């Protein structure tokens, strides 16, 4: 069972509205009442949204970490067409604006970590390889993310067919709550979450392929030189961990940290390792600020 702690007393939660291209995007923020010593910006996965982090946000804030989650366009309480991704340029611009606003809020002296979970890791990888993304950050974390999934499982012919897809028919991702967590409370929440995105249009899968191409192409630009880590369970019922770790190390020239927590489920924040992951990510963030304190 997941340990129950006394509810945090020093946490403030806010929802910031970011008007972007005809849609109001929701940027959720949990921060300590005192001065934040670090910040984490979280990229959520396919069906999740900021509401899935209702326990995680306060725990980061208890560690003096300001925790930001953008409900991606069409997800959570953000505006936009549900289940239908816009073009890659719009997605990158949305994230760039949200992270720039995050940097403005926390200031220049606070270390910022970009944290991508599951599909959010692919969005993060694409952003890091976008020359237009220049917001300073100190570290990145990829968690249970199958990087380059479509490039891994589809043949070149299948990828070419997918790239040309313009259909609006729904494609069911086939995600099961039991793969995410063994805890019946969280499984019930996932199964009955009215805000969860459970399918995408077929043309949206073409967008996901285009996002992957941004960091899988042989002539891709080099990502920023910042400490990076890949975090997962020991096994994962959704992600091919061996394949994704191979892509991760290729993207970052073999210099990335690989860390495994003792769980066999996909969504680490809904398992017994949640608190350990929060504490590790908090420490990983705070360590990036130590050099600035050295005279």
Automatic annotation (TrEMBL):
<feature type="domain" description="Serine aminopeptidase S33">
    <location>
        <begin position="35"/>
        <end position="251"/>
    </location>
</feature>
<dbReference type="GO" id="GO:0016787">
    <property type="term" value="F:hydrolase activity"/>
</dbReference>
<dbReference type="Pfam" id="PF12146">
    <property type="entry name" value="Hydrolase_4"/>
</dbReference>
<dbReference type="InterPro" id="IPR022742">
    <property type="entry name" value="Hydrolase_4"/>
</dbReference>
<keyword id="KW-0378">Hydrolase</keyword>
<protein>
    <submittedName>
        <fullName>Alpha/beta fold hydrolase</fullName>
    </submittedName>
</protein>
<dbReference type="InterPro" id="IPR029058">
    <property type="entry name" value="AB_hydrolase_fold"/>
</dbReference>
<dbReference type="InterPro" id="IPR051044">
    <property type="entry name" value="MAG_DAG_Lipase"/>
</dbReference>
């Amino acid at each position: 069972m997941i340990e129950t702690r006394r509810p945090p007393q020093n946490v403030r939660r806010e929802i910031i509205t970011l008007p972007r291209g005809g849609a109001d995007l929701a940027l959720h923020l949990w921060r300590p009442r005192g001065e934040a010593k670090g910040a984490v910006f979280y990229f959520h996965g396919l069906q999740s949204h900021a509401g899935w982090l209702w326990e995680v946000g306060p725990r980061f804030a208890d560690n003096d970490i300001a925790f930001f989650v953008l409900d991606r366009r069409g997800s959570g309480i953000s505006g936009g067409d549900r289940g239908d991704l816009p073009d890659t340029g719009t997605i990158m611009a949305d994230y760039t604006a949200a992270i720039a606003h995050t940097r403005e809020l926390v200031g220049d002296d606070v270390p910022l970590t970009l944290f991508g979970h599951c599909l959010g890791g692919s969005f993060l990888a694409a952003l890091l390889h976008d020359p237009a993304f220049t917001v300073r950050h100190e570290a990145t974390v990829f968690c249970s993310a199958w990087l380059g999934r479509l490039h891994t499982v589809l043949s070149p012919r299948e990828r070419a067919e997918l790239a040309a897809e313009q259909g609006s028919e729904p494609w069911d991702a086939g995600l099961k709550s039991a793969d995410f967590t063994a805890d019946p409370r969280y499984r019930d929440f996932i199964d009955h979450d009215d805000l969860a995105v459970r399918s995408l249009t077929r043309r949206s899968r073409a967008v996901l392929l285009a996002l992957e191409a941004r960091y899988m192409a042989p002539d891709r630009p080099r990502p920023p030189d910042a400490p990076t880590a890949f975090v997962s369970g020991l096994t994962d019922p959704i992600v091919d961990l061996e394949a994704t770790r191979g892509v991760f190390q290729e993207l970052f020239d073999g210099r990335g940290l690989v860390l495994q927590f003792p769980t066999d489920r996909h969504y680490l924040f809904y398992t017994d390792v949640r608190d350990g992951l929060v504490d590790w990510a908090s420490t990983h963030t705070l360590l990036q600020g130590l050099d600035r304190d050295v005279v």
